[in-house]
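Risk register update: the risk of archive-format incompatibility is retired. Evidence:
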Amino acid sequence: MRLPSMLKKAFVLLALVWLAVTMVFASPGAASNTVRIDILRVDGTIVPAVASYIDRGISEAEANGAELVIIELSTPGGLLSTTENIIDRILDAEVPVVVYVNRWAGSAGTFITLAAHVAAMAPGSRIGAASPVTMGEEELSDTMQRKITEDTRARIRGLAILRGRNVAAAEATVVEALSFTDGEALGKVALPEHQQEVLNLESPYLDPPLVDMGASSIDDLVSSLNGMTVVVANQEVTINTEDYTVNPVDMTLVERFLQVISDPNIAYILLSLAVTALILELINPGAILPGVVGAVSLILAFYSLAVLEASWAGIFFIILGFILFIAEVFTTTFGILTLGGIVSLVMGALILFGGGPEVFQLQIDWWAIALVVVFIAVIFIFVVGAIVRSQRRQPATGKEGLIGSTGTVQTELNPTGLVMVQGERWTATAEDDRIEPGSEVIVTGVEGLKLRVMKK
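Archived output:
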């Protein structure tokens, strides 16, 4: 009887062991031994949609306990106000933020890179040229331009001091518009002589460097980060990247769409398309499609122009160009108004984004200007002109189409008789005193079923 009792105890013991093992492997802690690293990718102009994306990415990393956030960056620059928002979000982050420059960190990208807890660059990438400029710098007084430059200089100097990077080189990207290759920024490649003179260096190498490390890939970067200590939210944090998993955080469709339409070229095209379509709808009411396209394009254009802080002078020049094109259709100036419209469209494009200081020069490419000008000129010369001419043309059918027609008197008009017009016999009243049979007459009016005629 002892054997069954012992077996029973053994089975109970094995069941408890099996339950314990199952609970250990099934527990969240057992599956969360790997380190999570969130990857954000920013490629293009720094606009509000990008700031929203970065804010969302950092917030998700904080909420999900990610070890760090890596922002893979390639940008020519962006809006000053948007850049400030991104910098503030990185400085307030509760998780280490690493910026990995892949190809280009121009203008606004320089500020974002220097704000990061760790700044890294890929081979062949570059950083710098962060001087604040506008399309219409001549509109700013010397005092205002100096105030903007000094404020931007102080901002980048503060970031360099905070992260322990080369202050002189950081300031030179703003004051002297200097740019550095990855090797130069890392202090591994000698600077050109003119940059050495500007920075007043005793050594041809940046010491301390402008960025922290180089990396050939994301995996190489993650490996190099292991064991590094950074200050996050006023606390020292040692980065652990052993046994890590990468979690890509992509832009949403809305964020990507808003980034695309926030391009200066797209904004200019949308505005031109909107005005053209609405004019077509007004000239030819009931077409519907031009009205719908124009309304949607106008709303999108308003968003883009507001985001990019467009100049009202540029908008007025573009509208003036359309007015001159319309005037050419209704008058005969042998192309003078058309030429004026083309000049106005080009002028509007050149100063459209010259309303305020930016971290990089917002401008419309010449291909976009040429495309819009040619498209609008063709539309107004051929399409709008044809519509207007058709509306002016006398009706060719019905009673109204008889006006101006030539007929022959069948019976004496004294003052009423019969005439033959367009193969039909009509009762007609002569505007003259008397018209003999066989005479040719011209129809001057239609009153019911009677014509008014005069002798040709």
